[in-house]
Specification:
Length: about 550
C-alpha cells in the first residue's frame, strides 16, 4: 500500500495540496518595482499578492531572486541562501511569504542547482588549484592532445559546453553560459551542500521548489561524445530552436544520467521531513521527456510532479494535446504532471496559437478553458491572464544572452519577460516610476489590469471564472480522464471522480461544428462553462468557432 492510500482524507488534502493545484509564476524582475530602479522587487510582489489571490490560484512560483551577477537574469546563482540586493532582503522575503500564507497562497521558489555562477565562492575555490578541498566540485577535464575540448558536447546557449581555465589548465563544463559552470553531482559532498541550501528555505517556511533543468544534474563520467540524432527518431529535440546546433545531437551523455534517480530520492527524503512540501521538476529531454518524467515521478519517493516542453510549442491542436496527455497517462502510472502553455522561456502562447490578431481574445479564453480541464496541475505565467501577446523588441533592447547570441533568427526570451502592465493610464503601466529594465509594450499597456478589471467579457474576468469553475468540481482536481474519438479539430474527453462525471468538448476550428455524441453517453445537465456558448441538441453538441461545452453525463 502506498503512502497516499494510507492517509486520511483531511491529511491528504493538507499534504497533497499540489495535486491539481493552479500555480502562478512570478518573474520578479518584471512584476512590480517599488523603488524606482526599473527592476521589480520582493516588496512589489507583496503589494500585488491580493491581485494574485483574486485570480483563484493556489500557489505562486518565484523565478530566482538569489544573489547573482545576473549574466542569465538570476539563473546564475552566487549565493543560494540570500536575496540579491536588487530584489530586497531576506526580511522582505519573509514578509512576502507571511502575507502570501495569510492570503491562502503557497510559496514555491526556483532552485537552480545544476550549475552556479562563476562568481560563487565554491567555484572560485575549485578553480584555484587541482588539489584544494573543492577541486572536484565542478566538472573539470583535460584538453585533448591538440588542445581542443574534451568531447563534442554543446551548450544550450551556443558553442561548445567547455570553457578553458588558465589557472587549472583544464576545461570546465557548462551546459549554458560560460559563466555558469556545472556542478559535479558525482561528488556526494556537492549533493550534501546543495541539500543544505534547500533545507535553509524549508526551515524558512517555503512550500515547494521548482527545480530548474532537473535532468541536467549528472553527466557521463566517461565524457563520451554525443551521437548525432536522426531527424525522425525519438531523439529529435524540443529543447532548442532549430537555429541552434544543440538540437543536432542526441543528448545521451551530457544529461539525464541514471545516477540522478538516487539524488532525487535524497531530495525527496529531505522534503518528507516537512509537512505539505512539494517539487515540480523542469524536464527538457526532447521527445524522451515523458519517459524521463515517468522515471522521476514514479514510486512516490522522488519528485511530486514534473512539466515538459510538450505544450510549450506552436501546436494548439486536439491531436497534439491528446497525444501529450495520453502519452503521459500511458507512461506515468503513478506520477503527476503540471501542464502549462507559457512560461519565462517561451513565446507567449496567444502569439504562438492565434492565426491573426483579431482572435487573440478568443484564443486566450479557449486556451485556459482547455488547460484548466486537463488532468494534472496547472502553471500560469504572469500576464497570460490578460491575454498578453509576445512583445516586439529591438535588438538594442535585448538583455537575454540567448537571444543576443542567435539574433535575428531567434529573438530570445525577452519578449515574454517584459514588465507586467497594471494601469493603462500611468507611466510605464504602473510597473515602475523609473526606466524599466525592458520596455513596456504599448500594446500590452492597453491590455492592463485596470483596463480589464471591471469588464465581464475580458480575458482577466474569464480566467477568474474558469479557475472558480475548476475549483467547484472535484473531478477537475484529480479525477480520471478519458478521451473520446472525434474529428481532428475537436478535443473531447470526460473527467470523473466518484459519482461526478463531466463531459468536455472543445472546438479548435475557426468555424462552427456539430459533433454527434456516442450512443453510450447521455447528457444529464448542461453546465455553464465560462465564456463558452456550446449547447446540445438531439444528441449532438453544437459549437461555434473556438468554442467549448460542458455537461454532466
Amino acid at each position: 500500500m502506498t503512502k497516499s492510500t494510507t492517509k486520511t482524507a483531511a491529511t491528504a488534502k493538507t499534504t497533497d495540496w499540489w495535486r491539481g493545484a493552479v500555480i502562478y509564476q512570478v518573474y520578479p524582475r518584471s512584476f512590480q518595482d517599488t523603488n524606482g530602479d526599473g527592476i521589480g522587487d520582493i516588496k512589489g510582489i507583496t503589494d500585488r499578492l491580493p491581485y494574485i489571490a483574486s485570480l483563484g490560484v493556489d500557489a505562486i512560483w518565484l523565478s530566482p531572486f538569489f544573489t547573482s551577477p545576473m549574466a542569465d537574469m538570476g539563473y546564475d546563482v552566487s549565493d543560494y541562501c540570500d536575496v540579491d540586493p536588487m530584489f530586497g532582503t531576506l526580511a522582505d522575503f519573509d514578509a512576502m511569504m507571511n502575507e502570501a500564507h495569510r492570503l491562502g497562497l503557497k510559496v514555491m521558489i526556483d532552485q537552480v542547482i545544476s550549475h552556479t555562477s562563476d562568481q560563487h565562492p565554491w567555484f572560485k575555490e575549485s578553480r584555484a588549484s587541482r588539489d584544494n578541498p573543492k577541486a572536484d566540485w565542478y566538472v573539470w577535464a583535460a584538453a585533448k592532445p591538440d588542445g581542443t575540448a574534451p568531447n563534442n558536447w554543446l551548450s544550450v546557449f551556443g558553442g561548445p559546453a567547455w570553457e578553458w581555465d588558465g589557472v587549472r589548465k583544464q576545461y570546465f563544463m557548462h551546459n549554458f553560459l560560460g559563466s555558469q559552470p556545472d556542478l559535479n553531482f558525482h561528488n556526494k559532498e556537492v549533493q550534501q551542500a546543495l541539500l543544505e541550501t534547500v533545507k535553509f528555505w524549508l526551515d524558512r517556511g517555503v512550500d515547494g521548489f521548482r527545480l530548474d533543468t532537473v535532468n541536467y544534474y549528472f553527466h557521463d563520467k566517461e565524457l563520451r561524445d554525443n551521437p548525432p540524432h536522426a531527424p525522425d527518431s525519438e531523439d529529435a529535440g524540443l529543447d532548442a530552436p532549430d537555429v541552434n546546433p544543440y538540437g543536432m545531437q542526441s543528448h545521451l551523455y551530457d544529461k539525464t544520467q541514471p545516477e540522478n534517480i538516487e539524488f532525487l530520492k535524497r531530495f525527496r527524503a529531505l522534503l518528507d521531513q516537512y509537512e505539505g512540501r512539494t517539487t515540480v521538476g523542469e524536464v527538457g529531454d526532447g521527445a524522451r521527456s515523458l519517459k524521463t518524467v515517468a522515471a522521476y515521478t514514479a514510486g512516490g519517493d522522488k519528485l511530486h510532479m514534473c512539466y515538459t516542453f510538450d505544450l510549450l510549442g506552436p501546436d494548439f491542436t486536439p491531436s497534439h494535446i491528446r497525444h501529450c496527455v495520453q502519452s503521459f497517462q500511458n507512461q506515468v502510472a503513478d506520477g503527476w504532471v503540471c501542464w502549462a502553455f507559457s512560461n519565462h522561456d517561451v513565446h507567449r502562447h496567444v502569439s504562438r496559437f492565434m492565426q491573426n490578431a483579431d482572435e487573440r481574445t478568443a484564443v486566450a479564453k479557449l486556451a485556459i478553458s482547455v488547460l484548466s480541464t486537463l488532468r494534472g496541475s496547472v502553471c500560469l505565467y504572469q500576464g497570460e491572464e490578460l491575454g498578453l501577446p509576445e512583445a516586439e523588441l529591438q535588438f538594442e533592447d535585448l538583455r537575454d544572452p540567448y537571444g543576443i547570441r542567435f539574433w535575428p533568427a531567434f529573438k530570445g526570451r525577452d519578449g515574454c519577460r517584459t514588465p507586467m502592465v497594471w494601469d493603462k493610464t500611468r507611466k510605464q503601466a504602473g510597473f515602475t516610476s523609473g526606466k524599466p529594465w525592458l520596455p513596456v509594450s504599448a500594446e500590452h499597456q492597453a491590455l492592463s489590469v485596470s483596463a480589464q478589471e471591471n469588464d465581464a467579457d475580458s480575458v482577466l474576468s474569464h480566467y477568474r471564472a474558469v479557475l472558480a469553475f475548476r475549483k467547484s468540481h472535484a473531478a477537475l482536481a484529480d479525477g480520471d480522464m478519458h478521451f473520446l474519438a472525434t474529428n481532428e479539430d475537436v478535443l473531447a474527453f470526460t473527467r470523473q471522480k466518484g459519482d461526478e462525471r463531466l463531459l468536455f468538448v472543445f472546438n479548435l476550428r475557426r468555424g462552427p461544428q456539430e459533433i454527434s455524441l456516442p450512443e453510450h453517453l447521455s447528457v444529464k445537465q448542461v453546465l455553464p462553462l465560462p465564456g463558452m456558448q456550446g449547447d446540445v441538441k438531439d444528441g449532438s453538441v453544437m459549437l461555434g468557432a473556438l468554442d467549448g461545452f460542458c455537461a454532466k453525463i
